[in-house]
Design a protein that fits this description.
heterodimer; A: about 110 residues; mainly beta; 5-stranded antiparallel β-sheet; about 0% helix; about 55% strand; globular; B: about 120 residues; 4-stranded antiparallel β-sheet
């Protein structure tokens, strides 16, 4: 079973629009959530983290978390062509070892057209 | 400061051959992860080391895969014998903590493996 689900996209938005990326997760006890951005041919990099219900803003990026619905989203305001990338949702899940490691969704590809 | 260093960046080999991928984590990081990324399955955790000790290898697909971390600055992922379905990008990542509690993994540039 896949614990982190994302729409693969592509999500196409015009420059200047708001892009909304969504993620659902299956582990009800998860407490922290992360968004990574991966440009084509590159490695993932962390761009946002959120731990509490509600919104967290960082520049043009806003992460939203609803633990009751097991739902986390990423909003990108004033989208730029440079935002075109795949966005990966990641959740730490406890392994049999007792340690938690990041489980990633498959990612949503975002295309921002000039 | 150097990031996570992986080699080779690209590897093309024939089915049945042995493949060894290498990783040098960021100095001071005590956790090291090997992930595999494909279009079909996304980014999957293969194995996780903490303080050079393998903690969880439940993601290793089968006995053809093995990983070692002989010291804090070096790890290998070996596939023997390789098969076409092993074709993927293999990422090594390191962090300060097992979680990383901050969620921040530092990824290498990846090794793109093609098995013919």
């Amino acid at each position: 079973q896949k614990e982190v689900e994302q729409n693969s996209g592509p999500l196409s938005v015009p420059e200047g629009a708001i892009a909304s990326l969504n993620c659902t997760y299956s582990d009800r006890v998860s407490q922290s959530f992360f968004w990574y951005r991966q440009y084509s041919g590159k490695s993932p990099e962390l761009i946002m983290s959120i731990y509490s219900n509600g919104d967290k803003e960082d520049g043009r990026f806003t992460a939203q978390l609803n633990k009751a619905s097991q739902y986390v989203s990423l909003l990108i305001r004033d989208s730029q062509p440079s935002d075109s990338a795949t966005y990966l949702c990641a959740v730490p899940l406890k392994m049999n070892s007792g340690y938690s490691t990041l489980t990633f969704g498959k990612g949503t590809m975002l295309l921002v057209s000039p | 400061d150097a990031g996570v260093i992986q080699s080779p960046r690209h590897e093309v080999t024939e089915m049945g051959q042995e493949v060894t991928l290498r990783c040098k984590p960021i100095s001071g990081h005590n956790s090291l992860f090997w992930y595999r990324q494909t279009m079909m399955r996304g980014l999957e955790l293969l194995i996780y080391f903490n303080n050079n000790v393998p903690i969880d290898d439940s993601g290793m697909p089968e006995d053809r895969f093995s990983a070692k971390m002989p010291n804090a600055s070096f790890s290998t992922l070996k596939i023997q014998p390789s098969e076409p379905r092993d074709s993927a990008v293999y990422f090594c990542a390191s962090s300060f903590s097992p979680t990383g509690r901050t969620g921040e993994l530092f990824f290498g540039e990846g090794s793109r493996l093609t098995v013919l």
